Amino acid sequence: MTQPPNVKGRKPFQEATVRHAVSRLQALDGSRRFLVADEVGLGKTLVAQGILQYLATGPKRLNVFYVCSSLTIANQNRDNLLEVLPPEQRAGATVSV
After folding, report:
1. What's the chain look like in SS3?
2. Which of 11, 15, 43, 54 has the fewest CB atoms within 10 Å, counting from its CB?
3. Where are the beta strands (DSSP E) in 32-96?
4. How many C-beta neighbours within 10 Å does residue 57 have?
5. 35 in Cβ contact with 60 (< 8 Å)
6. DSSP code of 79?
């Protein structure tokens, strides 16, 4: 697994979660889904960004289903999720709420 740059200084526990999720999602016998659930304010969005960062460079189309507790939070985070993508990929990405 090639390591992309550490976006916004993910903490070690966040980076460990990113690496674990990516390794399971890329494994031939791994899951096609991964749920990140944690307490408020522990960086689930940063983890989601890290996973996107790793997997967006792959050959397959990437579909991400982002679930959060309120529409307000969804609107706050919709663009944050995509800021780790290169501009040419970001333009074609969609986030609907």
Report:
1. CCCCCCHHHCCHHHHHHHHHHHHHHHCCCCCCCCCCCCCCCCCHHHHHHHHHHHHCCCCCCCCCCCCCCCHHHHHHHHHHHHCCCCHHHHHHCCCCC
2. 11
3. none
4. 13
5. no
6. H
Residues 6+ apart with CB under 8 A from 58: 26
Structure tokens at 55: 């997997």
The residues, any chain, with a CB within 8 Å of residue 19's CB and separated by 6 or more, are 1
Model confidence over 56-97: pLDDT tens digits? 877 777 777 777 788 888 877 877 887 877 787 777 776 666
Distances (CA, A) of 6 to 18, 43, 59, 73, 93: 11, 13, 22, 23, 21
CA distance 11 to 38: 14
Q: Using CA atoms, how far apart are residues 73 and 58, in angstroms rounded to an integer? A: 28
